[in-house]
């Protein structure tokens, strides 16, 4: 869910394989986030659709994945603003679309940080102990129903907003990948397209070999 940066030095516009591509850590954190979010929504759906037999285990899985998402989102933000390589926006991408892309990106980050906190706040406000990963979290309050309801409403609303932004993000990526074909989709793929990269490198090498040498003026 990390997007292109509007300005990058010309020599950094393409990765080592000749394509616009994010750095490996950014790609890894992106797909780790995707896996965590998919696990959270899947466990929530199973919890609603199930017969209650595995409800306790699903709650543990859902809470644990949600809490794990929070530090991953923080690491992504820290990496993005320090050492991450962010390719530039495609030159044909309108300015308004670039601004909307940035707004949706930061909206996703905000929701990724908000969701785990509201979910954890809801569990704590109930006033009962619960399991997180392999640890038992003791009750810290006597139970506050209005506060629990407030956290639940915020958590549910932010979940729907997160799902909507993810849907828009996927549609935009597919549009860029299969309609515009401007390498936006390929820039976050967890694998390298070696065949195309080799062909591009061969083309560049042939062009360099046939170009006349630069002459120096005295």
Features:
single chain, 218 residues, mainly alpha, Fumarate Reductase Cytochrome B subunit, two-stranded antiparallel sheet, 5 helices, 2 strands, disordered C terminus
In short:
The protein contains 5 helices and 2 strands. The longest helix has 36 residues, at 145-180. It has helices at residues 24-49, 55-80, 95-125, 145-180, 194-210; strands at 130-132, 135-137.
| CATH level-four homologous superfamily name | Transmembrane di-heme cytochromes, Chain C
Helicity level, as a percent range?
55-70%
Count of beta strands: 2
**Which sequence of SSEs, written as H and E, runs from N to C?**
HHHEEHH
* Largest sheet: spatial strand order: 1-2
Description:
With 218 residues, the chain is mainly alpha-helical. The chain has one domain: Transmembrane di-heme cytochromes, Chain C (Fumarate Reductase Cytochrome B subunit, Up-down Bundle), CATH 1.20.950. The protein has helices at residues 24-49, 55-80, 95-125, 145-180, 194-210; strands spanning 130-132, 135-137. Strands 1-2 form a two-stranded antiparallel sheet. A hairpin with a 2-residue loop joins strand 1 (130-132) and strand 2 (135-137). Helix 1 runs antiparallel to helix 2, helix 2 crosses helix 3 and helix 3 (95-125) packs antiparallel against helix 4. The N and C termini lie far apart (52 Å).
